[in-house]
Structures are given as structure tokens and as C-alpha cells.
């Protein structure tokens, strides 16, 4: 009969020692009479966490997620969601509102100068462009309000309207958030397709920024169809829009792309981008309505005064007038200015 | 104004369409995760019945029997 080698014996002994060492609790505690204390020497949470980042069990249903018992990252996510996120969101949004109010009460509304009114209109945004803008904008407002309800609703709204009304409102807000996300995503794609060509940054934008968009100095800086400030808004909407879409899709189809830890991270990213997005769009809404006289007309009726366009987007006006003397951009029988 | 109205209508129509499409591809947990060996309760029921007798079709507490001597 063949004898096992010394090396094999040593290996077996080491394996047995290691397996015994791993299965024994780190500190076996005995009762005062010397008998083992079954509670103190049993497997505990600390010991389990030394072996794996989560504690799970076994389930017989096809939902493997149900086996998850303790996931410590969930506590960090809850802390972030319940303490940091409301503060970050509140500061971002209220800070922007305060900054806009300060600007309004110190600088006032940017009025049209007399020289910016000629009475002759120029088509700035066609019907499809306005449709795209308003579809995305209306969805954004509902998404923003229903999204803020996730963060602030139970703190601000529920004490005012009561738990039953808040529950019903939140249910409908959730439906609106989930389903209006689709036309919003479509709108962001439309915006990219329709306006990307006119939003490529160039040297003219650098000059526009150097002159503070007309705030520094006496002259309006040159600008094409969109000035540098508008280009920043466009790329912000595209960047944040796609980021919100990607993170939102991950949450719309839970656990299809990632595990519970990934879902929590994605939710945090979605919420953080969301509050910054809302704060930035507040500035866009301000400058497009209350902040600048005549700015709303561009997206309202689609037409702007030719003289205004010459002041604020002189290079674009030249380009439009050079294209054709009776093209579609000068509708309703109007004639070009020169 | 016309573009705004059309945009709002389109957004609502797309949202309703999305709700039907997504709803058609969704299953309740009791449908998705039940097997021949493990049952996930239908909402409103449990595995032991309303009187914990194992009879899931039995009458709930407070239900008065219609037959009697």
C-alpha cells in the first residue's frame, strides 16, 4: 500500500488547520463556569462582514434580490438622501432664486432700446423648433416639480395638505414623472438634431464672453444665431438631458443593468444632476421672460424684430438676408431690410 | 401659441402611449416570481388563509355563515 508523502501530509494538516481557523469565531467566549457561551461564540454580523460586503440568505423564488438581507451601502445612501440631498437641492434652487432676485432688483429688466424696434419681423424659430422647445419645456417643468416632491414633499407638502392628499398627489406625480420622461427624452434628441449645427463653439464666442455679452463696454458683441451664453444653455440641456435620461432609464427598469448598490448610486447621481438642472433652467426661464424684454417673442410667436436681431445676432441676420431676399425666413410678404 | 398647444398635446399623447407600452410588458411580483415550488402571494391574500387554517378560500373573520341548524 502506498504511503502518503510527507508533503501531502503537511498540506492536509495545513488545510484542516485553516478550515478550522476560518470557521471558529475570532474570540470564543466561555461562561464563568467554563462552559461555552452559545450566544457569544455564534456567528455574528461582524464576522460575516469580514467575509463579504453584504449579508445574504437563500431563497427558492426566482427573485435573487430577495436573498439580500443586509447591505451596508444602503445606510450610506439613506443618509445621503435624507440629509445631504435636501440641503444640496435647497441651496442650489433657493440660491439661484436669490441670485436672480438680486440681479432683478439691482440691474432691473433689460429693456429694448428704441433703436431695436423697427416694426419689421424676422422668423427666428420655425414651428417645429418651437414645438420641440415647448414639448421639452412643459415635460421638464412637470418632471422637475414631481422630482422635487421626491425630496421635499414629505417635509414641506405633507404637513400642509395631510398624509392622504399627499399620498394621492405623490402617486400621480410618480406616474407623471415616469411617463412624461419619454416625451422629454424625445425632445432632447430633437433639440440636438435641430440646433447642434448652430451651437458649435467658435472664436466669435470667445469674443462675446470677453465683452461680457454686452454688459462690459458700450457695444453689443458680434453673435451668430446663438451667442455664447445660449450655447452654454444648449450644451447644458443636452449634457444634463442625456445624463438624466440614462440614469432615469436605469431606474425605469430596476435591476436590469445593475445591482442594488448600483441602483442607489444611479439614484443619487440622477437627483444631484436634477437639482442643478432645475437651478440652471430657472436662470434660463428668467432671462427668457422677465429678465429681458422681447426675448419671449422669439419662442412665443417665433418672430423677432429685425432691428433687435441686428443688435443681438448681427452675423446671423446678415447670413439670413444673404441667403435670399424673399425666403421663408421673411414670411408674410415682408421685405428684407437691405 | 399653436406650437405650445400642439407640444402639450403631443407630450400627453406620448406619455399615455408610454404608459400602455410599459404596462403591457410588466408583471406583478406574484406573477413574475412564483414557481411550481414557491408561491408569491397574490395581493390581498396570504398562504394560510384568512383564519390561518390553510384554507385560502375560507371566509374571513367577521363573516357570518349562511348555513346553520
From TrEMBL, chain A:
<keyword id="KW-0249">Electron transport</keyword>
<dbReference type="InterPro" id="IPR016174">
    <property type="entry name" value="Di-haem_cyt_TM"/>
</dbReference>
<keyword id="KW-0479">Metal-binding</keyword>
<keyword id="KW-0349">Heme</keyword>
<feature type="transmembrane region" description="Helical">
    <location>
        <begin position="131"/>
        <end position="152"/>
    </location>
</feature>
<feature type="transmembrane region" description="Helical">
    <location>
        <begin position="172"/>
        <end position="196"/>
    </location>
</feature>
<feature type="transmembrane region" description="Helical">
    <location>
        <begin position="232"/>
        <end position="257"/>
    </location>
</feature>
<feature type="signal peptide">
    <location>
        <begin position="1"/>
        <end position="28"/>
    </location>
</feature>
<keyword id="KW-0732">Signal</keyword>
<keyword id="KW-1003">Cell membrane</keyword>
<keyword id="KW-1133">Transmembrane helix</keyword>
<keyword id="KW-0813">Transport</keyword>
<protein>
    <recommendedName>
        <fullName>Cytochrome b561 bacterial/Ni-hydrogenase domain-containing protein</fullName>
    </recommendedName>
</protein>
<comment type="similarity">
    <text>Belongs to the formate dehydrogenase gamma subunit family.</text>
</comment>
<feature type="transmembrane region" description="Helical">
    <location>
        <begin position="84"/>
        <end position="105"/>
    </location>
</feature>
<keyword id="KW-0472">Membrane</keyword>
<dbReference type="InterPro" id="IPR051817">
    <property type="entry name" value="FDH_cytochrome_b556_subunit"/>
</dbReference>
<dbReference type="InterPro" id="IPR006471">
    <property type="entry name" value="Formate_DH_gsu"/>
</dbReference>
<dbReference type="InterPro" id="IPR011577">
    <property type="entry name" value="Cyt_b561_bac/Ni-Hgenase"/>
</dbReference>
<feature type="transmembrane region" description="Helical">
    <location>
        <begin position="269"/>
        <end position="287"/>
    </location>
</feature>
<dbReference type="Pfam" id="PF01292">
    <property type="entry name" value="Ni_hydr_CYTB"/>
</dbReference>
<keyword id="KW-0812">Transmembrane</keyword>
TrEMBL record, chain B:
<feature type="region of interest" description="Disordered">
    <location>
        <begin position="44"/>
        <end position="69"/>
    </location>
</feature>
<protein>
    <submittedName>
        <fullName>Uncharacterized protein</fullName>
    </submittedName>
</protein>
